[in-house]
Amino acid sequence: MNWRIPLADLDLGAEEMAAVQEVLQSRWLTMGEKTQIFEHDFAQFSGAKHAIAVSNCTVGLHMACAAAGLGPGDEVIVPSLSFVATSNAVRYTGATPVFADVLSLDELTLSPQAAAACITPRTRAIILMHYGGYACRMEEFFRLAEEHHLTLIEDAAHAVGADWQGRALGTLGHIGCYSFFSNKNMTTGEGGMVVTQDDALAERLRLLRSHGMTSLTWDRHRGHAWSYDVVELGFNYRIDELRAAIGVVQLGKLPGNNHKRRELTREYHQRLQQSLPQVGLPFLGREEHSSCHLLPVILPEGTSRVRVMEAMKAAGIQTSIHYPPSHLFTYYRRIHPEHVPLPVTEAAAERELTLPLYPGMSTEDVSLVVDTLAEALRA
Ligand SMILES: *Cc1c(COP(=O)(O)O)cnc(C)c1O
């Protein structure tokens, strides 16, 4: 499908191509010097003490859960209104995700009160997801985590470059995970980063990334090691040099691109408020500290979202839904056969519509999207 305005678009050019070519010419393609540079730059950018590049955010979340020592019998509180990777990561360790509701249709992040109500003696961790790049209610979650000795993991897949009181989202909890999938604010195709301020957790995460091995192929290539020991059951969750090299370039572009996303989000909000006051605008007025990854709107109750999406599609405008809630998926209904109602999540999942947002959009594009939406809602 050739969209007039796609949901998301990449900012890729000559610099990324040159970076890839340089790696190919170097003849070292697996984790090495470029990865070290990428991790160093990302740590500096985010203020994290340790940044560990991985092959995607999902494995990063798995590593985070494993490093937190989660296993069968443990419970982890997660939002259902997220990409399914958030709860899948918990399941990989054998632990049980417990779904909690989000705050409101204006604030689509985990409710601290709902999370607190889910705490049992088995609860070991909470995974926070900064929906659209807007911070969760951190003060309340810090208090909960401290009081109940819980590990706080941040799914910061949307939130690269966003902050809470000047601190980068993803660096606030014990471990944070970012995604560089191709529709995220910066991309390496597939790719991710895990960050922590804790030296012991960082060491554990590095081991888990590469089979629990005490030395890397890269170390041996450089003559720094002859052999290795395997000290725990790890995985191959490594990134490669091609992606790391793209990541370095993309990270450099991120502040400028996030700035454009913020301006476009303000433009959208202004126009939507003017012409469609019946449409809800989650996180209104919070652009400043957000990475503005998504532009979610809440359609009026009773609107046929499918019809709206079809009308937008007929005009060449791609829209999406974030998210079909995880607790209603067949797999998770099997894990939790008793239906636990999450009324806000279910209402959001029925009425949310995601509009196109990417740095290369023009204000004319924003106008066209808003006008087309207005027409679709009138019809
Ligand atoms: C994209 C995304 C992920 C998964 O990231 P991958 O890099 O594709 O594994 C996890 N959580 C959320 C909220 C996401 O949006």
Question: Could you write a compact summary of the structure shown?
Answer:
This protein is of the alpha/beta class and 379 residues long.
How many whole angstroms does the radius of gyration measure?
Answer: 21 Å
Helix percent band = 40-55%
CATH classification class of the largest domain: Alpha Beta
Low-confidence stretches: none
Oligomeric composition of the shown chains: single chain
Number of strands: 13
Structural category is alpha/beta
Keywords: Aminotransferase, Pyridoxal phosphate, Transferase
InterPro entries: DegT/StrS_aminotransferase, PyrdxlP-dep_Trfase, PyrdxlP-dep_Trfase_major, PyrdxlP-dep_Trfase_small
Active site: 184
Modified residues (N6-(pyridoxal phosphate)lysine): 184
Attribute tags:
single chain, 379 residues, alpha/beta, Aspartate Aminotransferase, domain 2, 7-stranded mixed beta sheet, two-stranded antiparallel ribbon, 13 strands, globular, binds pyridoxal-5'-phosphate, transaminase activity, transferase
List the helices and strands and how they pair.
Elements: H1 14-26, H2 33-46, E1 50-54, H3 57-67, E2 75-79, H4 85-92, E3 96-100, E4 102-104, E5 107-110, H5 112-117, E6 123-129, H6 138-148, E7 151-155, E8 163-164, E9 167-168, E10 175-179, E11 192-196, H7 199-209, H8 217-221, H9 241-275, E12 295-298, H10 305-314, H11 330-335, H12 343-351, E13 352-355, H13 363-378
Parallel strand pairs: 2-3, 2-6, 6-7, 7-10
Antiparallel strand pairs: 1-11, 4-5, 8-9, 10-11, 12-13
Helix pairs in contact: 1-9, 2-9, 3-4, 3-7, 9-13, 10-13
This protein binds pyridoxal-5'-phosphate.
Pyridoxal-5'-phosphate binds at residues 56-58, 82-83, 85-86, 129, 155, 157-158, 179, 181, 192.
